[in-house]
Design goal:
By secondary structure, the chain is α/β, with parallel strands linked by helices. It is built from 20 helices and 18 strands. The C terminus is likely disordered. The structure holds zinc ion.
Amino acid sequence: MRGFHVYYDDQCEVCQAGVSWLRVLDRRGVVDVIALSSVPLPAGLVMENCLRELHVVIAEKTYVGWDAVARLARLFPPTWLIGAVGAVPPFSWLGRGLYRYVAANRHAVSRCRGGVCASAKPAEVRRRTASGAFWTCRSIGFFWRLPLVVGVWIASLGTNLRAYVRTFRRRITLLDGRLTLLFLGSPTADFVPLLFGERFWAVCYDGVMIDPGSSKMRGSLRRHLDAQPLAITTVTATHHHEEHSGSLEWLAARSGAELALAAETSKRLRTLRVPWMRAMIIGQPPNLTVAPKTLGERVPTASGGVLQVIPTPGHSDDHVSFYDPQYKLLFAGDSFMGGYFSSPNPDVDSLAWIETLERLLNLGVEILVEGHGHIHTLSNLVPDIPDVVIRVAPEEELRTKLNFFHWIRRQIEIGQSEGMPPAAIAATCFPWGSRWSWERFGADLAARVLSGGEFSRTELVRSFQRRGAGGVLPEVYEMESSRPNQV
Ligand SMILES: [Zn+2]
């Protein structure tokens, strides 16, 4: 039975970090954690007091502030001693003093906005936001959560390794042979699935080969085709990025298939130069030497069906997806990339991506095939394949991502309207209270370091400002914002 009701201020980063720990410690599920903004308060509790200090209610008894912390600590073996010692003088006096000091300064140090504490001290919060207080709080929130961040990151590396081993250069055939998935890789490219979980595959659907991998993965593609040839009639790509486009011309020549690309993709691939790190790991795509056919509205498949070509800009402006209305099957390429993909590169335009997601939601997709090793579906036409098939409705996945984008956009708008500095706006888009923020921190940091800053969380914030519309800041906004207006 959940006998302990914990009321906390969910707008406060310090409180959120404490709740993260509480959830980890509470293995028996005895604590019921309640956000102040989510429910009406029970009789006897006053909002103003609850905002000031943590309240724990057990049956008829209410513990407040430090006493509540000490009571909770005594519930769990790892923290029992702290709770027991902290409940007796002089330690209890010390604890209460310390708690009151932190609680009193919490609204000034925490970047709280909207919701509950908007009614507390909005002017005070705004006044102090630009000072070091915000960053102090963010740093404290981070270090308090650091063991969780590290633990989750190590666990994710284990998950990545398992998925990599299970699908290593695998060939999977589905839908009565219509769909073939060829897992690709190379000694250098394999760092990506191990570190970040994004695997590489080429997808062949009824004669249409979509995204046949990078130049460095060509050996693995060749071995697949040598082992078991595929009848390919058309070779195409969802967009110009190197892991999708490096073997297009080579495969079309080898298989005698027609090469068909979106006009913008062809244009890019004639002159594309990728940054050196990406060239080293994934491979520089050879520039096109032939003129591909330009993709129309549909691509015929080998047995008389069609794939609709749907423009899906956002991840990159030349991105297209392919849709078979008969099976409600979408080849999304990189126009999905998980619900919380949080470190994009400068190609991403998130406002365009929002429109794309809305368009995809209208299709009624039942099977969503991604560009990096996952299929999202509830359909029983697709069997369970561990680490490949995710049993979630595509609509739900797309909606989660759309909601995430809307939320980030709102954070940026509010931050700008309050005159927050750009770096602080970026930080508020990744509050430690959101699970995806600290769970993905390790992988996002690795992406930033390994790509020399090209893929980063900062880029996600910039990706909402590409168009410079509505008074938002242009691409390199830190520089722009400190420059006087130019005529
Ligand atoms: Zn891409």
